[in-house]
Amino acid sequence: MKRLILGAALAALTACAQPATLPKGPIAAGPGITITAVPVPLNPQDAAQDRIGDFVYAGGLVLSSDQTSRFHGLSDLRVTRDGKLTSISDEGDLLETRVLRDKAGRLVGLGAATLTVLTGPDGKPLQGKKEADSEGLAVLPNGDRLVSFEAIDRILLYPAKGGAARVVPSPVGANFPSNGGMEALALDPAVGPDGYITAGEDSGETWTCRLSAACVKGPTLEKPVEFGVVAVDPLPGGNTAWLFRAWDPVRGSRITLKILGPQGEVARMDIAKPLTVDNIEGVSAVPNKDGSTRFYLLSDDNFSNSQKTILLAFDWKPAKH
Questions:
Q1: Which residues, at least 6 apart from 5, have a Cβ–Cβ distance to it below 8 Å?
Q2: Which of 132, 137, 133 is nearest to 120 (CA)?
Q3: pTM for the complete prediction?
Q4: Tell me: the pLDDT tens digits for 69-117?
Q5: Three-class secondary structure of residue 34 per DSSP
Q6: Cα separation of 258 and 141, whole Å?
Q7: Strands of 252-261's sheet, edge to edge?
Q8: Which domains does the chain have, with CATH numbers?
Q9: N- or C-end of the chain: fewer Cβ atoms within 10 A?
Q10: End-to-end CA distance of the chain
Q11: In Å, how far are 148, 195, 306 from 212, measured between CA atoms?
């Protein structure tokens, strides 16, 4: 999570929003929460807008839950072909639910959900923001989960069958700045069956890693200095989706989704006001039956009343040449 600096400026980010008041007092995380999903248009000022370039809007939701004070800060997500959604928060929680679609395939809601606490290698719940700042998520074919952390920069593997988490390879000597570490994390099958990719948020440096080998430095992503690398998801055919995020008190949140191939940029989508946007930090790409790709984008509300948890869906199909 890139913390949005300060008081009045932070309020300006979503001054026109009417967010719900967060529940007072601690409410324990636990299974069985209900998520309220309120539909949002792509452009609140133009109800007819249904796409951004080649990316077709497939629905969007503002998410909340009045059953726990911990349904906030969602930093990354993975969605499977059959609709299972897994997400992590930057205060060390794991969310599991399902995306719901209508007959046309548009995103309309989320199903029953569970919210549980991430633990450390000692089997105990992660304690405090510094230890629990989980930012990136990858799910291996066998169901094991990889989670990257900022503050204490590391990647932990959580076995699908249960048991203690363990530390796995992450970039050595990267010297990530405070709050500028491994927000982006995803499987990278091109590296191997146990391969994954990560990047430095501020630097744009990338690494490919394996559970069975050390991380190898890759190319540095080109980006404007004000943008951070916040999420990644490789696509079939050799392309990779990278998500970049910027914020300032005048323009608010700005998001760029770039699809990069071996020869450079294949496609991009820019999201900024007046479009529906917030502090979007997570992306998950899911193949559709018609050959297009569904991109789910998720925002981190920073546990703030002035921001929202938003889940957006877009469909994209490569142009034919």
A1: none
A2: 132
A3: 0.90
A4: 999 999 999 999 999 999 999 999 999 999 999 999 999 999 999 999 9
A5: coil
A6: 25
A7: 228-234, 240-248, 252-261, 264-271
A8: 33-316 (2.120.10)
A9: C
A10: 39
A11: 17, 9, 43
